[in-house]
């Protein structure tokens, strides 16, 4: 395949894709509508069979009425339609926004001579059959057939049909699997252009895996046109959105796009199970093995001991009463903690900090020796009963000169601070810094006299645990002061004793803020929300799965179902054994994911309405209509579902009356009906 052929071919592919894109962008602007209706005799009201419906501008036949006088077609707002037949006066109708049209033709009293009747076929349009978008779980299924007139499809042609799922609510288009139909010669030529490697995923025709090649099997029985079946599905998260299915079509030869068109084959979704009564209750976790236990509460006390050492020595000045006073403060604090029978001191840690003047290594050693001495001194000063069980430890460090700078700036001695900082900037060696700083004129009077002593300190940290279980009143007081100090057990005790739902939810959310892995709290909150119809499908997501308790997986599955995430709910329930308690939930999840037969009896047993919905899902329409007569007439949904049954069994007039009555009883149903493929073809008739 030479470079010129490659360039020509890819130019053609780009042209095809560009044409489809233009169709996609232009479809909305053209206001394509699906128009259905009925043609009757003005004199008798009887349906008229064989009425031709023609686009007067394009002079194109769009549809012919059937034995019930009904027709359906795709057209555009503003199109002028001609309704005509032998023996009747033609009628001109301009398409508005109506979806259902009733046309009455006047009988034409004329003497008919012998005439030759010829059937007119549509030979200049690709006609995908109207269909429904069927919902199973979170999957939207589109099935249709595409008729290709013989006159339009020659040996050098390729037809590309691109269905597109249109999320009307979110204004989002999603490409479905394309359908590609090749004439035999075109297909052979295409294969040669790709060097007999057109099926290669890297070097071949990107549309090759979607190609159907024209053959005798694609000829429609008894007709001279071809017919190709199409089926595809798309996973969607938002089942509450309104959907339609648009189809963009193009026929190309080897170099040009010679035909393009667009149509809408489906509006709304067919999903009777949207009304399924899933009265499933969330449950708290009652398995005590998952309850939190009273935890040892870690408490710590921090402070500063101002001990005085002999200059340049590692020993304390034992003659200075100040040291005894400081040690006594520490002893009293230890004694107070030990006086609580429910408290145990675990450790006492000292940290000594030396000032940076002098050699660093000497200061480091001196600080360490002082801490060792101080620790021993404190241990000796404490009574034996206070020392037992306490782990003593110490560490030491040398304060950097940058802390001196900070102290100087705090006291507004900016000039002195800048001079010290300048020395720090010129050298990173602390010994060099110390030598140069000692030569500053204000070293003895300011630094040595006032600031270096502030850096010489002994800090202590004392850790202790409290074993006592707090009372509910004590927990409430602790919560009021600072909820962040509560343990898991204290949160658990507090929210399970709270009767106010709002306060209870607040406490649980605060518990999860502090302890994100607090599974029982997440489960209890999930159950509360489920039972109020406010379920959160993300709440139990971190916990659900193979190792989770059955209650957690059940609550998570219910929350997912309530939020129409049916596939995820089904996966979650794979970890829940089928028991008497979980049987209904398994069945509901099963039917919502399209497994009707095996779960019909369980769901149907929950009530006549659910049984009716199952029949509609299984397309047992006549049985559903019969059962709809047994539902209570004082409920709006009864009349809505009866309208669905009547519309499916071709009683549009009865369906319209039932739908109108349902809207009168519950106006909110009209909004839902606009997205319901089972009844939305009746809505615009209502507006006439």
Parts with pLDDT < 50 across at least 5 consecutive residues: 17-30, 109-122
* Number of discrete helical segments: 23
**Gap between N and C termini:** 61 Å
Dominant shape: elongated
User: Could you report the average pLDDT, rounded to the nearest whole number?
Assistant: 83
Fraction in beta strands: 15-25%
Q: Mind describing the biggest β-sheet?
A: 6 strands, mixed
Rg from C-alpha positions? Answer: 42 Å
Which structural class do you get from the secondary structure elements?
alpha+beta
Number of strands: 22
Portion in helices: 25-40%
How are the secondary structure elements laid out?
Layout: H1 3-29, E1 32-41, E2 52-55, E3 60-64, E4 70-76, E5 80-84, E6 91-94, E7 100-105, E8 127-128, E9 133-136, E10 139-148, E11 158-167, E12 172-175, E13 179-182, H2 184-193, E14 211-213, E15 226-235, E16 243-252, E17 257-267, E18 269-270, E19 297-305, H3 321-338, E20 343-354, H4 360-381, H5 384-387, E21 391-398, H6 401-410, H7 414-426, H8 430-438, H9 443-455, E22 457-466, H10 472-481, H11 488-496, H12 501-514, H13 519-531, H14 550-562, H15 566-573, H16 583-592, H17 600-604, H18 608-617, H19 621-628, H20 636-648, H21 652-665, H22 668-673, H23 680-686
Parallel strand pairs: 1-7, 9-18, 13-14, 20-21
Antiparallel strand pairs: 1-4, 2-3, 2-5, 5-6, 8-10, 9-10, 10-15, 11-12, 11-13, 11-16, 16-17, 19-22, 20-22
